[in-house]
C-alpha cells in the first residue's frame, strides 16, 4: 500500500486497473479531439529535441517492468492518455470511493513511476517540458472552468459524486443542494468552493502573539534552523530557503528560520487565509516544475508525495510576504506550492494591503498542493503540543504562539 495523501488510491492495483481502461480508449483514438493540438505540439517537442527525446525514452527503460503502467509502452501512449484526460473532469468513481480513495489527479497516476527515475527527474526539471505542461494544463483548465465540466458533480447517495462524498456538504459550503450540480457553474467552481458564514471561525482574532493555520491541511513537517542554502535533493530533503524564496532579496531575512509545512488533500477546502494580522509586503509568482521528484529506489511508488520538501525549491509556487503587526514576528512568508496537474496559484490580495487573521490570500485551482509558513530565526515560535506530523489542522485555527508558552 502507498500513502498518496488521498490523491490516489493506496492500492496500486486500483490505479493500474484505471490506467488499463484509459489505455483501451487511447488505442482506439490516440489524440482525442477537440484538444489534440497541444498534445501534437508536446510530441513535436519530444521528437525535435534530442535531449528531451533521450529522457522520455530512458524513463521507460529505468522503470522496472513490473511497475510500468499497464499498456503504457512508450511516450506516444503516454501522450495519448494526456489527450484523453484533458477532455474530462476528474470523476469520483473509483471502486475504492467508498473508502475515500479516488483517482483525483489522473495525469500524476500515469507519471508516478516515471517521476521516480533519474531520466524522469531530468525530463521534468526541463524548462521546455514544464512550459509545455503549462500549455496543456491551460487548455485543460479552460474545460474545467466550463459548464461542460459539471457532469462529475451529479450523483446520488448510492453512487456519490464529489459533493455527496463530503459529509454535511450542504451545511458547510455555499451551494444549492436542490440543484443537480449543487449550484456550481463548473468543476473549478466546486473545487474552489467557499464556507458558509460561521464555518471555520478565526481563533484568537485580535491576539497578535498567536499564529493561525492558513489552510485546511495535514501537517507534513516542522523544521527549525533551516539553511539559506542546502542540498535539498538528498535523502531527508533539507529545506533550502534561498531556493524556496526564489533568491528574492528578502530571502536573507529567513536564514536559520523555522518552516511549517502542511499538505492539502482532494476533498479539502483549497483557499488560503492569513495566519497573522499585518500588511502584505511583497508577492512573487514563481514558474516552476510540475512533476519533478527526488528519486528514491526504496519507494514502491508515490515519489512526488514523498518529495514535498524537495518541491518547495523547484515547483510552481507563489510567495506572499507579510509584515506582522507583532514586532516579535515581523516579516514572515506564506508559500503556496502547486503540485502536479493544473497547479494554478491565484492570489487575491495586493501589495501594501492590510490583512487580518482569516483574510483570504488566494487559492489553489485544480491540482495537488502543499504550503509553508516561514518565520525568521529570531522569532520565538512555539507550536501547540497537538501539532505534529499527520495532524489535521483547520484553516483559521490556532497552531502556534510567539513567546515562552505554546498554544494547547
Question: Would you summarize the structure shown here?
Answer:
It is built from 12 helices and 14 strands. With 408 residues, it is of the alpha+beta class.
Key features of this structure:
alpha+beta; three-stranded antiparallel sheet; Phosphatidylserine decarboxylase-like protein; Glucose Permease (Domain IIA); 12 helices; eight-stranded antiparallel sheet; about 400 residues; single chain
How would you explain this protein's 3D organization?
The protein is of the alpha+beta class and 408 residues long. It folds into three domains: 12-146, no CATH class; 150-185, no CATH class; 210-402, Glucose Permease (Domain IIA) (Distorted Sandwich), CATH 2.70.70. Helices cover 27% and strands 19% of the residues. The protein is built from twelve helices and 14 strands. The protein has helices spanning 12-28, 36-48, 50-62, 75-85, 106-115, 118-124, 127-144, 162-165, 169-172, 187-191, 241-244, 308-311, and strands at residues 210-212, 217-226, 257-264, 271-273, 278-286, 317-324, 331-339, 345-347, 354-355, 360-364, 368-375, 381-383, 392-393, 398-402. The strands form three sheets. The protein has an eight-stranded antiparallel beta sheet. It has a three-stranded antiparallel beta sheet with strand order 1-14-12, with no helix packed on it.
